[in-house]
Every structure is written in C-alpha cells, then in structure tokens.
C-alpha cells in the first residue's frame, strides 16, 4: 500500500471531535433502550458543533469506529445488577481494563463493554483513553414497553451530568459586549448565532410579554411545542416569528437584551430602544 493510498483510507474515518456520546441498548425493550432514548433527548436539546452523538442501538459495531478521533467518549447503557431500578453507576475509564472477549460477538448482543473491547482491538493506539460510562439499572424490559418512571428520572439526571461536565464548555458563550436582538417590520425577532447556540440550543422557544418586556423561554425540544428558531444564514444566525406574542406592540430595530439566570429566560425590554 502506498503512502498516498494509506492517507486516503485514513480520511474515510469520522471527523475528530471533543466529545463523542454513545447510547447503547435495545430501543424496543423498555428500560433496555435508555441509552438510545437519552441520545434522542440530547439531539432535541441541541448538540454543540464539536460534539457528536451515536445511537449505539442501531449502529452496531460501527460504534467502535465512530470513536476514532474523539478526545473524550461517554457511553450510556442499561444495567442488570439486581439493584433498584433507576440506580446510576458511573464507571470511569481507569476501571475499564477488564473487558469481555470478542469471540462469538454479534450485533444482537452488542453492549457498552463490547463496544469498548472492539474499539481497542480495531483502533489500537487510535482508541480514545478518556472514556466514562454511565449505567442505569433497568426495571422492565418487556418488548414494546416504555421507560419506567425511575429509569426516566435517572436518565434526566445523567443528561444533566453530561451537559454540565461534557457539553457546557463546548457551547458558545454570550457576547461579552452585551446582548442585542433585532425586530423586523414583519414581526420576526433576529438573534446572532452565539446567543442562539448558548441559550436556545434546541431551537424551540416560548415568547410572552411580561412587565413591558418580551420574555424568550427556551424549550427542551420541538416536541414541546412553542416557536421554532429558523436559521437565516450559513453563520448560524436565527429568526423567530414573535408577532403574535407582541400583539399591537411590534417594535422595529435593534434592542438590548439580557439573560435572566434566575428565571432562565432572555428578557428584551421594549422601552427604551437602543
């Protein structure tokens, strides 16, 4: 194999990323599907540009190759230890030395430890060494069942941990020069990519008038209803139709805004105008 050909083959791998998050499990068997379901929730909330998510319940052994180029890997799967359903286990990479053998492995039995074992075998030195595994104890795993309440609550806790420890640092921060939005004559509110990415990652919002201000409340995802932020240009600036919320008070032009941490909303004072 020539060097040129080898470089071309290497280019076929996935792009590098800061964080790769993998959800393993069978989506069709109740709590066993908590990994793939968690991945879907993360996707609805919005993923930073330098992070990638993989549904290991459908990707099979391809999960291992997805790890190539990732600086950090987070794996989520269900467990069956006999503990109370919803119990969360965190397994840091340092404790992942003993992994199962690869003999007899097939996609129908592909779980988190198989994914890591296969990745080490397939990728060798290219396998990431910064790996964290979250296991959520399953309750019901009947075919066609939904997540049980304890497992759903545990999933939300793991999502919070992942956001805080692995994703938050990758999200754009607010503009240090101050926040600003623009109202158009046809009733749209426009915001920059930095503001949209840091405060409205799911692209879904609720708009309301409170105390002579427009409040913009981020939602967890489009399935929650509300308004959708639409991309305006390749740089990621967004626009959302707020005319109905404003009623007969449709301003035009640039307005200062600020993020209210206590309320978790973007507040836009409608007077005075900047």
Strand and helix map with partners:
Blueprint: H1 3-10, E1 17-23, H2 34-45, E2 51-55, H3 56-59, H4 62-66, E3 70-79, E4 88-92, H5 112-123, E5 131-137, H6 149-167, E6 179-183, E7 188-191, H7 193-199, E8 204-210, E9 213-218, E10 227-228, E11 230-231, E12 238-241, H8 243-246, E13 253-260, E14 265-269
Parallel strand pairs: 1-2, 1-3, 3-5
Antiparallel strand pairs: 4-5, 6-7, 6-13, 7-12, 8-9, 8-10, 9-14, 11-12, 13-14
Helix pairs in contact: 2-6
Structural features, described:
This is Peptidase M52. Belongs to the peptidase A31 family. Keywords: Aspartyl protease, Hydrolase, Protease. The protein is α+β, with helices and mostly antiparallel strands. It has two domains: 16-170, HybD-like (Rossmann fold, 3-Layer(aba) Sandwich), CATH 3.40.50.1450; 179-269, no CATH class. It is 26% helix and 28% strand. The chain is built from eight helices and 14 strands. It has helices at 3-10, 34-45, 56-59, 62-66, 112-123, 149-167, 193-199, 243-246; strands spanning 17-23, 51-55, 70-79, 88-92, 131-137, 179-183, 188-191, 204-210, 213-218, 227-228, 230-231, 238-241, 253-260, 265-269. The strands form two sheets. A nine-stranded antiparallel β-sheet has the order 10-8-9-14-13-6-7-12-11. Strand 8 (204-210) and strand 9 form a beta hairpin.
């Amino acid at each position: 194999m020539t060097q040129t050909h080898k470089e071309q083959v290497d280019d076929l791998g996935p792009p590098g990323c800061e964080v790769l998050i993998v959800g393993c499990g069978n989506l069709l068997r109740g709590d066993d599907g908590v990994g793939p379901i968690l991945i879907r929730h993360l996707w609805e909330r919005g993923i930073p540009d330098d992070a990638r998510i993989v549904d290991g319940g459908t990707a099979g052994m391809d999960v291992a190759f997805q790890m190539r180029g990732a600086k950090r890997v987070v794996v989520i799967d269900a467990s069956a230890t006999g503990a109370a359903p919803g119990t969360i286990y965190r397994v840091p990479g340092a404790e992942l030395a003993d992994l199962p053998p690869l003999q007899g492995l097939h996609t129908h039995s592909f779980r988190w430890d198989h994914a890591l074992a296969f990745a080490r075998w397939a990728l060798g030195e290219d396998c990431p060494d910064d790996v964290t595994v979250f296991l959520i104890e399953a309750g019901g795993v009947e075919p066609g069942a939904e997540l049980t309440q304890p497992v759903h609550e545990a999933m939300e806790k793991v999502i919070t941990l992942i956001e805080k420890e692995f994703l938050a640092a990758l999200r754009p921060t607010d503009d240090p020069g101050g926040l600003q939005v623009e109202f158009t004559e046809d009733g749209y509110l426009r915001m920059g990519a930095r503001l949209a990415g840091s405060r409205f990652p799911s692209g879904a919002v609720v708009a309301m008038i409170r105390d002579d201000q427009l409040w913009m409340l981020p939602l967890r995802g489009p399935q929650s209803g509300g308004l959708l932020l639409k991309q305006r240009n390749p740089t990621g600036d967004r626009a959302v139709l707020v005319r109905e919320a404003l009623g007969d008070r449709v301003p035009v032009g640039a307005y200062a805004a600020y993020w209210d941490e206590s309320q978790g909303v973007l507040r836009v004072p409608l007077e005075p105008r900047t």
